[in-house]
Specification:
This protein has about 475 residues and is mainly α. About 60% of the residues lie in helices and about 5% in strands. The chain has 19 helices and six strands. Strands 1-2 form a two-stranded antiparallel sheet. Strands 3-4 form a two-stranded parallel sheet. It starts with 17 loop residues before the first helix and ends with a helix. The structure holds arginine. Arginine (ARG) binds next to helix 6.
Length: about 475
């Protein structure tokens, strides 16, 4: 029984079991590498021509054939309906041979699917990393715009989810701007290590044809060539690194989502989410649910899962290619798709929300968020911080019993606790002063925040 469509059929006497064949197939998901594979195959074809393996005529025939496949795939929406193709690489080769005949059978000379898949995957991912970085930048832009649009909005900052100190809304926005900036640096790093050409490593030992690997790398825009063929065919660190960078993006997006979900709740009422990104309840008519944000938070889990899957898939592999590696695709594809959509949706949520400035102002001025100011005030009067902290704490306790805020106490009230307190305490406790005093680099004073905002805007403009 020799009738087989497989690329590797020669050595086999019996037919592949149908259930196994289905199990073994990756075409249904790796067909999205089609264009990348064709492009890399063209470069390989040129490499073979320059190595003297293919004549000019043969190389032209193969390349024209490959171009034709791309055109057909473009206009025929059923082009990829192939229930038997093992993977995208064999699909392309089979179609090429169908189209141009036996010359097509020469394309795979000096190449293995092992170096081919590693090359194509890197080639494809390289572009996606650039795209994800661009979408991350769009969210950074949305954060800057939101900061700019609500420059005067003041928010209580929290630790342990207890009101702590007042901050500017813009300060909150810029915190996420920073996180995403580091995420983009990580993506750049991942891009740099992805951008290396494995082609020419063949199955595991390197190719015996005189292919100028450097020239192929240059043709495909790779920064350099892999230095060790064994490593090149089995390395997927670039994928792990990429998914790791995305996992951190998702950590940041998830926290962003959590903040906004809380702020949108009836308990906080700090922001109003747009109807455009909310849903209702099928049962409770009054509900407006922050589904967009909840999905962002929820999807973080699957990206962490992909990272764990890739690490686990790699850890026990003997050197060089093993079929386990085929599992890398879906993890990376799903990561690319979901991270991209989460970033996009996060920007839409932000562009459409309004800050309820009265509510946030009230929350920032009630609940003793200026107690630290009182301690700092005493420090300025020469009191040791630990003593000042203790005195301020006692005054807060007194104010709580009186059901008054600190700035609502009289001077006499203060002086029961410390005779160093004078009328200028009221200035020190004011919201303006509380904010303005955080004036070192990174602090929430309006001066610093607006300066950071300008820097952020400039950085984004430079990239345009
Ligand atoms: N579909 C395979 C993958 O994604 C391509 C490489 C197959 N190589 C092999 N020797 N079976 O990894």
């Amino acid at each position: 029984m020799t009738e087989t469509k497989n690329l590797w059929g020669g050595r086999f006497a019996a037919k592949t079991d149908a259930t196994f064949a289905e199990f073994n197939r990756s075409f249904d998901f790796d067909k999205r590498l089609f264009a990348a594979d064709v492009r890399c195959s063209i470069a390989h074809c040129d490499g073979l021509f320059h190595a003297g393996v293919l004549t000019r005529l043969e190389a032209e025939k193969i390349k024209n054939g490959l171009f034709t496949l791309v055109k057909r795939a473009d206009y025929d929406k059923n082009y990829f309906d192939d229930a038997t193709a093992e993977d995208v690489h064999s699909f392309i080769e089979t179609r090429l041979v169908q189209l141009i005949g036996d010359t097509g059978r020469k394309l795979h000379t000096g190449r293995s699917r092992n170096d081919q898949v590693a090359t194509v995957f890197r080639f494809w991912l390289r572009e996606e990393i650039v795209e994800i970085s661009r979408v991350t930048r769009d969210l950074q832009k949305a954060l800057v715009d939101s900061a700019e649009a609500q420059k005067e909005a003041i928010l209580p900052g929290y630790t342990h989810l207890q009101r702590a100190q007042p901050i500017l809304w813009a300060h909150w926005c810029l915190a996420y701007f920073e996180m995403l900036g580091r995420d983009r640096e990580r993506l750049d790093e991942a891009w740099r290590r992805t951008n290396v050409l494995p082609l020419g490593s063949a199955a595991l030992a390197g190719t015996s044809y005189e292919i100028d690997r450097e020239a192929v790398a240059k043709d495909l825009g790779f920064e350099g060539v892999s230095a060790n063929s064994l490593d090149a065919v089995s390395d997927r660190d670039f994928a792990v690194e990429f998914v790791g960078a995305c996992a951190l993006i998702m950590v940041h997006l998830s926290r962003f989502a959590e903040d906004l979900i809380l702020y949108a709740s009836s308990e906080f009422q700090f922001i109003e989410l747009s109807d455009a990104v909310s849903t209702g309840s099928s049962l409770m008519p009054q509900k407006k649910n922050p589904d967009a944000l909840e999905l962002i938070r929820g999807k973080a889990g699957r990206i962490f899962g992909h990272q764990t899957a890739l690490l686990t898939m790699m850890k026990g592999l003997p050197t060089a290619y093993n079929k386990d590696l085929q599992e890398d695709k879906e993890a990376v594809f799903d990561t690319v798709d979901n991270v991209k959509s989460c970033l996009k949706v996060a920007a839409i949520v932000l562009q459409n929300l309004s800050v309820n400035k009265e509510k946030t102002f009230k929350a920032a001025t009630e609940g003793y968020l200026n107690a630290t100011e009182l301690a700092d005030y005493l420090v300025h009067k020469g009191v040791a911080f630990r003593t000042a902290h203790d005195t301020a704490g006692k005054i807060v306790l007194f104010a709580i019993a009186q059901k008054r805020e600190l700035h609502e106490l009289n001077l006499e009230d203060f002086r029961q606790f410390s005779t160093q307190i004078e009328t200028d305490v009221f200035d020190a406790l004011s919201l303006e002063q509380t904010l303005a005093s955080k004036n070192q680099i990174g602090g929430t004073s309006p001066e610093r925040v607006f300066e950071s905002l300008e820097t952020a805007k400039r950085d984004l403009e430079i990239e345009e």
